[in-house]
Amino acid sequence: xxxxxxxxxxxxxxxxxxxxxxxxxxxxxxxxxxxxxxxxxxxxxxxxxxxxxxxxxxxxxxxxxxxxxxxxxxxxxxxxxxxxxxxxxxxxxxxxxxxxxxxxxxxxxxxxxxxxxxxxxxxxxxxxxxxxxxxxxxxxxxxxxxxxxxxxxxxxxxxxxxxxxxxxxxxxxxxxxxxxxxxxxxxxxxxxxxxxxxxxxxxxxxxxxxxxxxxxxxxxxxxxxxxxxxxxxxxxxxxxxxxxxxxxxxxxxxxxxxxxxxxxxxxxxxxxxxxxxxxxxxxxxxxxxxxxxxxxxxxxxxxxxxxxxxxxxxxxxxxxxxxxxxxxxxxx
Amino acid sequence: xxxxxxxxxxxxxxxxxxxxxxxxxxxxxxxxxxxxxxxxxxxxxxxxxxxxxxxxxxxxxxxxxxxxxxxxxxxxxxxxxxxxxxxxxxxxxxxxxxxxxxxxxxxxxxxxxxxxxxxxxxxxxxxxxxxxxxxxxxxxxxxxxxxxxxxxxxxxxxxxxxxxxxxx
Lengths: 332, 168
Description:
The structure holds two protein chains of two kinds. In chain A, 30% of the residues are buried. Chain A has 16 helices and no strands. Helix content of chain A is 75%, strand content 0%. Chain A starts with a helix and ends in a 12-residue tail after the last helix. Chain A has a domain of 192 residues: MetI-like (MetI-like fold, Orthogonal Bundle). Helix content of chain B is 43%, strand content 22%. Chain B has four helices and seven strands; from the N terminus they run βααββββββαα. In chain B, a hairpin with a 3-residue loop joins strand 2 and strand 3. The mean pLDDT of chain B is 85. At the A-B interface, helix 1 and helix 9 of A face helix 1, helix 2, strand 5, strand 6 and helix 4 of B.
């Protein structure tokens, strides 16, 4: 197990380095830079000092240096939590992303908890009540969740929440709490505003997970050892929990790695529709304005979450089920 | 059956030394050379500890001689141990792979007898098949309960074990 952990962690380091390099280069590839748009605006207004101003801005953002120099300066800064200047407001990236990261993590954690809780309960129920009314209802909602685009569901829930339940909609807190330190009132307001985004973002993930858990559990429940256990008079609950559920739960563990980046990248459009102050809309803005430092920092954070998620899920799977698979070429 | 002296091949040990050194260097160099944020420093320090432990374990492997005898399996070296086949009470065979399709991985055998230290060996060890086969025979003779995973891994190595009833 130690050897496995060492090899996996050792793979993470070059992976993150290559991702960060590719991301930085690709964002910088299109012609122009983040100053170009600002200068175009000044030129269209007839500002005679526009070109001089452009040079000053390029020096301020370090854009006069070669790409590799800027990349390694950015990487060196990461170690002391300095991601450089953002072109959007000429403020450090660290200050821009601070609160948004916290709010994003709160929202995504709630979404993941929602996905796991709902899909676990419904998946187990659907598998143990195959072809009964509850199974059909769960399958129906599962397919609806898979088929309906998130932004459409967001619009519908916004309307229903406001008109029928009087919920405060849009944003992640009431306007009176913005720019204020955390308090019980602010925390309660965030919780109230979390309901709709969590349902919207979590529905598609839940639907997929229910289908997988149901299918895996049905496979396990039809195996010989379950029949033997039942014949020996074991209670249905014990029979379910002892082995079939333990084997069927592997997809949950395997999905940890995919869930984090999927939820973050998949929530950009929903965040725009619901006016959520999360990282998604800011990443979109940074990519549109070629704000390399800001966009690369966001994408690096997503990559780090992905790689850590994959590591955690691989380690858990190695502990839960260290079995050779048919088709693998085998041991040394 | 006479006893056999088994060791890890030199190239396997060197590869592990290289991994450990690369890990310590990659995690430790920023800590030494840069003014690192304290949370990142904590993560990097955890990495240094992990690779450091791996380095020590590799060195222990190099200094250990494994002896497979008709009645015992002995790890002769620092932190060594001995397993008496007649008193074997635990056997686990796990398979690990860092690849997505789980190919090109390695096995890890873990055996122990009552009151003794558990000995863990990897499939890189010379004569690993013989150790695993002898351990499986001893486990069957002693009625040691083996997990479904262990039985599946033994079968994949071509070592036959009688089907045990699942302990439901």
